[in-house]
Amino acid sequence: MSRDPRVDSYIAKAQPFAQPIMHHLRAVVHEACPEVEETIKWGMPSFMHHGILAGMAAFKAHVAFGFWKGRLVTGDAARSREAMWSFGRITSLDDLPKKRQLLAMVKKAAKLNEAGATAPRTVKHAKPVLRLPADLATALKAKPAAKAFYATLPPSAKRDYVEWITEAKQPATRAKRVAQAVQWLGEGKRRNWKYETR
């Protein structure tokens, strides 16, 4: 078994509640996949077998553990929405699947890696079509330089201005933002120009 002393050190520095959880997870991974190698990736213990197999991390009040192939391994058993990785916030051994189930998941993850399987990417839904608010369109018509600069901006920079204006709750605030936007656009500035590096 390939054990990395940095993982021993990581576990030793974890909160007392986390140590038995991490020792258990580590033992299960090694039992299910004897060829696994340990390393530290992104500052956290990781298990490698034909690529990244799984990883774990200790936090102040919970442990996180997950498979690199995520739902391909865990199916609907995943609680990844609760916290980072596959099993959500793990605060005790009771928060983990039974050892037999966990062994089966590690073996499945190893076989997926051996086969070169890739996890499906999350489909990002396209943002709605950007519509220029009428008040901004009217103000831009009165300032040709601002309108010309606005036309050169990429969609994300245009969206910054439009969302800033349309998120105003009071009509007076919205009018003030439209005036400010036209001024900045006339000066060739993006919405967040103060934060851009030069």
TrEMBL record:
Positions of the YdhG-like domain: 19-109
InterPro entries per UniProt: YdhG-like
Domain of life according to the entry: Bacteria
Pfam families, sorted: DUF1801, OmdA
Designated name of the protein: YdeI/OmpD-associated family protein
Protein species of origin: Pseudogemmatithrix spongiicola
